[in-house]
C-alpha cells in the first residue's frame, strides 16, 4: 500500500527525507510549467472574446472561468494530450475546445503574439539587422488541411512550418504547409506573415536574411532582394567552417534553435488538428510565449 505525501505544514516537511522533498518540489515545478504564466495571462485576459448573450441556460453548467480556459488551452499546447483527456481541475475538454475555437476565429492568439513582439521590441529591441528563415517538418497522423506525404518519413502524413526569426531567435513570421511543399515556395508567405510593421531597410540600417542551401535558387534570391533583404544563402558545410573561424559569427543557426523551442510544445511537435487554422493558432500561442520569454516578461 502506497503512502501519499502531503506538504501542508512545516513540521511534515522536516519529517520527510531530503531526497523525497526534492522529488516532490521538482514535480510541483513541472506542473506549474504547464500552466499559463501570470504575466502572459494579464495580456491574454483583455483579448479573450466576451461570453455571448443568452449563451448560459437556466439549470445548465456555469461557464468556465476565463483563467481556467487559458490554463486548459496552454496545458494542451504543452502536453499534446487529447482535449477529452484534460484534467478535471482545468474543466471540461469539450468546453475548453469550444472556447479555443472561438478565440482562434477572433484572432486572439495572433494578436497576443503581435503584442508580445511589441513588448520584446520595447524592452530588448527586435534585431531586424540579421534575420534567418528555415522550415521544419512534423508528423500529422490524422491528416487534414495543409498536410502531405513527408519525403523523409516514408511518405507518411506530415506538415511543415516555415519560421522567420530575428537575430536572437524571436519568431517574427510563421506559416504552415504540407510536408511535401518545398521551402522556396514558403519564403513569400512567411515574410508576409509578420504580425507587426517591419521597418524599412536603409543603407545605415540594412536587413540581412540568412538561408540554407535549400533556398539556393535564382527566383528565391530575386524575391529576397525584392523584399529589401541582403540574402545570405550558404551550405551547411560552409556554415560549420564559419563557426570555427575567429572573428566571424554564424547567424543562421538561431532559427534551428527556435524550431527546437517549438518542439518542446508537444501539440506542435505532432499535429493532431485537422483544421489548418487550429494548428496555426497553437503556433501563434507558442510564438507569443517565446516573444514574452525573450522579452524577460516571464522571468
Beta strand count: 6
User: Which sequence of SSEs, written as H and E, runs from N to C?
Assistant: HHHHHHEEEEHEHEHHHH
Contiguous low-pLDDT stretches (5 residues minimum) are 1-14, 20-30
- As a percent range, the share of helical residues equals 40-55%
Number of contiguous helices: 12
Q: Any idea what the CATH architecture of the domain at 130-268 is?
A: 2-Layer Sandwich
Oligomer: single chain
Radius of gyration: 22 Å
Please state the average pLDDT score: 85
Distance between the termini: 41 Å
> What overall form do the CA principal axes indicate?
globular
Report the top-level CATH class of the domain at 130-268: Alpha Beta
Instruction: Quickly give the structural class.
Output: alpha/beta
**Estimated share of beta-strand residues:** 5-15%
The biggest sheet amounts to:
6 strands, mixed
Q: What is the fold-level CATH name, i.e. the topology of the domain at 130-268?
A: Nucleotidyltransferase, domain 5
Amino acid at each position: 500500500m502506497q503512502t501519499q505525501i502531503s506538504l501542508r505544514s512545516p513540521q511534515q516537511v522536516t519529517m520527510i527525507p531530503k531526497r523525497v522533498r526534492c522529488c516532490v518540489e521538482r514535480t510541483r515545478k513541472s506542473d506549474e510549467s504547464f500552466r499559463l504564466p501570470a504575466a502572459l495571462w494579464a495580456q491574454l485576459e483583455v483579448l479573450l472574446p466576451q461570453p455571448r448573450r443568452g449563451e448560459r441556460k437556466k439549470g445548465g453548467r456555469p461557464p468556465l472561468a476565463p483563467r481556467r480556459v487559458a490554463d486548459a488551452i496552454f496545458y494542451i499546447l504543452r502536453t499534446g494530450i487529447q482535449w477529452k483527456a484534460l484534467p478535471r481541475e482545468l474543466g471540461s475538454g469539450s468546453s475548453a475546445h469550444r472556447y479555443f475555437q472561438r478565440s482562434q476565429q477572433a484572432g486572439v492568439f495572433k494578436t497576443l503574439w503581435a503584442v508580445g513582439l511589441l513588448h520584446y521590441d520595447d524592452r530588448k529591441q527586435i534585431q531586424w539587422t540579421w534575420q534567418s528563415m528555415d522550415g521544419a517538418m512534423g508528423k500529422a497522423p490524422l491528416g487534414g488541411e495543409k498536410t502531405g506525404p513527408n519525403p523523409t518519413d516514408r511518405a507518411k502524413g506530415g506538415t511543415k512550418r516555415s519560421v522567420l526569426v530575428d537575430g536572437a531567435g524571436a519568431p517574427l513570421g510563421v506559416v504552415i504547409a504540407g510536408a511535401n511543399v518545398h521551402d522556396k515556395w514558403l519564403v513569400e508567405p512567411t515574410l508576409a506573415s509578420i504580425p507587426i510593421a517591419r521597418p524599412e531597410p536603409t543603407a545605415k540600417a540594412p536587413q540581412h536574411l540568412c538561408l540554407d542551401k535549400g533556398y539556393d535558387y535564382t527566383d528565391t534570391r530575386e524575391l529576397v532582394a525584392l523584399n529589401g533583404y541582403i540574402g545570405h544563402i550558404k551550405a551547411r558545410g560552409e556554415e560549420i567552417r564559419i563557426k570555427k573561424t575567429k572573428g566571424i559569427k554564424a547567424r543562421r543557426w538561431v532559427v534551428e534553435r527556435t524550431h527546437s523551442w517549438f518542439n518542446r510544445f508537444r501539440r506542435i511537435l505532432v499535429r493532431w488538428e485537422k483544421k489548418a487554422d487550429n494548428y496555426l493558432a497553437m503556433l501563434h500561442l507558442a510564438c507569443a510565449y517565446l516573444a514574452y520569454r525573450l522579452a524577460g516578461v516571464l522571468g
